[in-house]
UniProtKB/TrEMBL annotation:
Source lineage: Eukaryota, Viridiplantae, Streptophyta, Embryophyta, Bryophyta
Organism listed in the record: Physcomitrium patens (Spreading-leaved earth moss)
Top enzyme class: ligase
Family: Belongs to the carboxylate-amine ligase family. Glutamate--cysteine ligase type 2 subfamily.
Keywords: ATP-binding, Chloroplast, Disulfide bond, Glutathione biosynthesis, Ligase, Nucleotide-binding, Plastid, Transit peptide
Protein name listed in UniProt: glutamate--cysteine ligase
Subunit-level organization: Homodimer or monomer when oxidized or reduced, respectively.
Gene Ontology annotations of biological process type: glutathione biosynthetic process
The protein's annotated pathway: Sulfur metabolism; glutathione biosynthesis; glutathione from L-cysteine and L-glutamate: step 1/2
Gene: LOC112278860
């Protein structure tokens, strides 16, 4: 759910950009404490991200070194952004109220030439206490965030007296409702850079967390804790969501408190390019869900699904989630998405340092100054940007496209997910090939895949074969697309290549371990998927 403002980036230069496929380094493990897990030595090499001061526009800005707007630390760019949300952003014409066309223009402003396309990777992970496998408390999370800020020079993000996140050089660390720890990476030029960024982040987190007796696991749904056992983070927007969710679906609180995902955010150069990528992304999202399926346990037992995280989205809030059939209709574009988003009920407006509960109210009324809780007040572009973050389809449009269908997982798959979509969507030949495959799929077929894949994975029957066979064709397109980029990036697909060939998802492998080696004790999954 956390967001990176993708329209802005300094072009990070990292050692990995030389074409080296980085790997995490495992060291010997210490003996496990009772009921806990072995501690792995720091296995992720620290990689410095040395960013340039090139500004690419958008709500976030990169302030050039030496700018009178503010000092730059160690000659790196300073990111100027408001978090919590900016309360001062105005309309497109100074002093005038926003119009529907301004909202359309906001989305259209994401169009950029291919040489400025970037890759933004986000991932979430579950933190836990190493000695007893219980969730981290907020007090422990606060210590962790403060340790990262002190040791690695991250800037603290506060809400009242509570530290709720960190920012540094276009990256942000944020807390999901149940304390899930999220890295929203900077938009970067290559997969080598984005993977090195993840590597550096995991190194830093492990360095501080292990001193506090904490660990992190990469899995799509919390395998052990109930919602009641999960701590609640002190963030105003989450309190509003927590009160609203049970009114509109049966799985809303599970989504908030017990899920983790990995996603990639990608650019487009025109409205037509956006539409093609949106359609390919939505149609093929079930394949990504299957390839990265990694959530087969709930409260200590198998839950009957391979991606339970994906399944719960079918009954969270139908007003703001789903696979958006209208995207495939003639005439779809920025205007149609704005119309859709305007019909999605609001959650909140951020004013004067607090979140105002607007749950269930209409952004259309807000545009006209008729919002009952803020009579006479009209929205800013920042309000619109925040509203877009409260919409949760399988692919989400902002000023870039978010691919949102994959479960959280171990380090290698955090690199494989952006590789998969970059190979498909950033190469013209592969994008066209994928579009040709999905172009005659019916709405009924797309819905069938969306509903069956969380349970059956790549073995869903589809037309004259299995979804596995389609996945093999799509995987080849992704790999060929990366090869044509000429940046030695195809190696990042290695971790999912065997999954594609065998049709056996990560979740099925975990279930095999559960039944055959773990003596049906799910606790071992924390060690298996420990970063």
């Amino acid at each position: 759910m956390a967001i990176i403002t993708h329209a802005v980036v300094a072009s990070a230069q990292v050692a990995a950009a030389r074409g080296v496929f980085l790997d995490s380094v495992e060291a010997s493990a210490a003996a496990a404490p009772p009921g806990g897990v072995r501690r792995r030595a720091l296995g992720c090499q620290k990689l410095a991200l040395n960013s340039s001061c090139e500004a690419l526009g958008g709500l976030r800005r990169v302030v050039p070194c030496g700018s009178p707007e503010g000092p730059c630390r160690r000659r790196t760019p300073c990111i100027v952004a408001a978090s919590p949300p900016n309360n001062n952003a105005g309309g497109s014409r100074s002093g005038e109220p926003l119009t529907r066309q301004d909202l359309v223009g906001y989305l259209a402003s994401g169009c950029k030439p291919k040489e400025k396309w970037r890759i933004g990777t986000e991932h979430e992970k579950f933190g836990f206490q190493l000695d007893n496998l219980q969730p981290m408390t907020y007090a422990q999370i606060r210590q962790l965030l403060e340790g990262l800020a002190d040791r690695f020079e991250w800037k603290k993000v506060m809400e009242g007296d509570n530290i709720i996140g960190l920012t540094f050089d276009g990256q942000s660390v944020s807390l999901e409702p149940g304390g899930q720890f999220e890295l929203s990476g900077a938009p970067l030029e290559t997969l080598h850079q984005t993977c090195a960024e993840v590597n550096s982040h995991l190194y830093q987190v492990k360095a501080v967390a292990e001193e506090l007796g904490l660990g992190f696991a990469g899995i799509g749904f919390q395998p052990k804790w109930s919602v009641a056992e999960t701590p609640i983070m002190p963030k105003g927007r989450y309190e509003i969501m927590r009160n609203y969710m049970p009114k509109v679906g049966s799985y809303g609180l599970d989504m908030m408190f017990r899920t983790c995902t990995v996603q990639v955010n990608l650019d487009f150069d025109s409205e037509a390019d956006m539409v093609k990528k949106f359609r390919v992304g939505l149609a093929l999202q079930p394949i990504a869900t299957a390839l990265f399926a990694n959530s087969p346990f709930t409260e200590g037992k198998p839950n009957g699904f391979l991606s339970f995280r994906s399944h719960i989205w079918t009954d969270v809030d139908k007003d703001r989630s789903g696979d958006l059939p209208f995207v495939f209709e003639d005439g779809f574009g920025f205007e149609k998405y704005v119309d859709y988003a305007l019909d999605v009920p609001m959650y909140f407006v951020y004013r004067n340092g607090r979140y105002v509960d607007c749950s269930g109210l209409s952004f259309k009324d807000f545009l006209e100054g008729k919002l009952s809780v803020l009579p006479g007040e009209r929205p800013t572009l920042s309000d619109w940007e925040n509203h877009l973050t409260t919409i949760f389809p399988e692919v989400r449009l902002k000023r870039y496209l978010e691919m949102r269908g994959a479960d959280g997982g171990p380090w290698r798959r955090l690199c494989a997910l952006p590789a998969f979509w970059t190979g498909l969507l950033y190469d013209d030949e592969s994008l066209q090939g994928a579009f040709d495959i999905i172009n005659d799929w019916t709405e009924k077929e797309r819905a069938m895949l969306r509903n069956k894949v969380p349970k059956e994975g790549l073995n869903v029957p589809f037309r004259d074969g299995l979804l596995k066979h389609v996945a093999q064709d799509i995987f080849k397109l992704a790999k060929d697309g990366l090869t044509r980029r000429g940046l030695n990036e195809a190696g990042f697909l290695k971790d999912i290549e065997e999954i594609v060939q065998t049709g056996k998802t990560p979740a099925e492998r975990l279930l095999d371990l559960y039944h055959e080696k773990w003596n049906r004790n799910v606790d071992t999954v924390f060690e298996e998927l420990l970063y």
